[in-house]
């Protein structure tokens, strides 16, 4: 896996209560070294182990809302991190009430952790985490309790610097190389301007990932995640239960596909499938009739996204 790629692991695609068919919502996004976890349903530790993902690689956790199926796995995961003598800091983001929920669970169960744990609750709209390689933003979802949707965008990766080419063009090794690597044109011998594109290979697109959390169809979310590489959207029901979906502020597979179309997403993954469905085929078919690039993963399915070179 190269630095600009992304691996998405569907740890749990069910909802409500865990079943033998599906675990509760949790999706891991693996970047080069770190893992970002979106929701942490009960059983998330077991699913992470089945997927061979180390707890210690998780650096950020995003909780969409405080319905139990999305967050009851979090205190257990943090206490296992403490048992494993974690030192690496951990940041957790989510809606109001998350901090007191986690802190009281850790305190009541006497968890002694020795790492920096930052819990940012009360997140609403805007940037939640800004790292050199990616940015994660949140925005309000439409649900029966305060809830968030998230989008992660990786930075575009600059093409590889070609030192031989730079020398050929008469750029001496030193600060001018650095300027070219940073994307600035430089002057050599006062007569010739060397442009970064002459010495850098093609840059690679920044991949992106969006996670709806529990929500009724939200056009605002669609516009916030335009051109996303992969949209993970809840699809609790299929269209025959559309009324139920709107009563409980959830989405159907068709509605998720409409959001993917609006967003011009490249791919759509349907999760949060109601336990009433024996398998995910109906969801997949319904979504595909509207948005061809739809799929309904099973627990522990993995999708690897590769960034491609982009023409300047
Ligand atoms: Zn839910
Ligand atoms: Zn919910």
Descriptive report:
The chain is α/β, with parallel strands linked by helices and about 300 residues long. It has two domains: about 5-155 and about 205-305, 4-Layer Sandwich (Metallo-beta-lactamase, Chain A); about 165-200, no CATH class. About 25% of the residues lie in helices and about 25% in strands. The protein contains eleven helices and 18 strands. The protein has helices spanning about 45-50, 70, 75-85, 100-110, 165-170, 175-180, 195-200, 220-225, 240-245, 255-265, 280-290, and strands at about 5-10, 25-30, 35-40, 60, 90-95, 115-120, 125-130, 135-140, 150-155, 185-190, 190-195, 205, 210, 230-235, 270, 295, 300-305, 310. The strands form four sheets. A seven-stranded mixed sheet has the order 6-5-4-3-2-1-17. The longest helix has 11 residues, at about 100-110. The two termini are about 25 Å apart. The model has no long low-confidence stretch (mean pLDDT about 95). Bound molecules: zinc ion (ZN) (2 copies). One zinc ion (ZN) binds near residues 65 and 143.
Would you spell out the secondary-structure blueprint of this structure?
Blueprint: E1 6-12, E2 26-30, E3 35-38, H1 44-50, E4 58-62, H2 68-71, H3 74-83, E5 90-93, H4 98-108, E6 117-120, E7 126-130, E8 134-140, E9 148-154, H5 163-168, H6 175-181, E10 186-188, E11 192-194, H7 196-199, E12 203-204, E13 208-211, H8 219-224, E14 230-234, H9 242-247, H10 253-263, E15 268-271, H11 281-288, E16 294-295, E17 302-305, E18 309-310
Parallel strand pairs: 3-4, 4-5, 5-6, 13-14, 14-15, 15-16
Antiparallel strand pairs: 1-2, 1-17, 2-3, 7-8, 8-9, 9-13, 10-11, 12-18
The structure holds zinc ion (2 copies).
């Amino acid at each position: 896996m190269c630095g600009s790629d992304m691996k998405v692991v569907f740890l749990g695609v069910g909802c409500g209560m865990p079943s033998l068919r599906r675990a509760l919502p949790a999706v891991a996004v693996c970047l080069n070294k770190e893992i970002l976890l979106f929701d942490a349903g009960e059983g998330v530790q077991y699913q992470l182990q089945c997927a061979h993902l180390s707890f210690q690689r998780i650096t950020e956790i995003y909780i969409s809302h405080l319905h139990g199926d999305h967050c009851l796995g979090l205190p257990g995961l943090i206490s296992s991190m403490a048992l494993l003598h974690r030192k690496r800091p951990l940041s957790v983001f989510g809606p109001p009430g998350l901090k007191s929920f986690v802190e009281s669970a850790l305190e009541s169960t006497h968890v002694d952790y020795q790492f920096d744990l930052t819990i940012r609750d009360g997140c609403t709209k805007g940037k939640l985490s800004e790292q050199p390689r990616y940015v994660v933003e949140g925005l309000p979802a439409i649900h029966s309790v305060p809830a968030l949707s998230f989008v992660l965008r990786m930075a575009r990766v600059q093409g590889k610097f070609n030192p031989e080419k730079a020398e050929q063009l008469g750029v001496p090794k030193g600060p001018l190389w650095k300027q070219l690597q940073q994307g600035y044109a430089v002057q050599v011998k006062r007569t010739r301007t060397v442009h970064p594109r002459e010495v850098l290979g093609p840059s690679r697109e920044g991949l992106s990932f969006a996670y709806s959390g529990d929500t009724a169809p939200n056009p605002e979310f669609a516009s916030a995640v335009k051109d996303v590489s992969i949209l993970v959207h809840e699809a609790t029901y299929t269209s025959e239960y559309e009324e139920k979906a709107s009563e409980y502020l959830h989405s159907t597979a068709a509605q998720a596909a409409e959001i993917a179309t609006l967003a011009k997403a490249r791919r759509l993954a349907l999760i949060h499938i109601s336990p009433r469905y024996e398998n995910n085929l109906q969801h997949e078919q319904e979504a595909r009739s509207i948005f061809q690039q739809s799929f309904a993963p099973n627990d522990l399915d993995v999708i690897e996204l590769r960034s491609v070179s982009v023409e300047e």
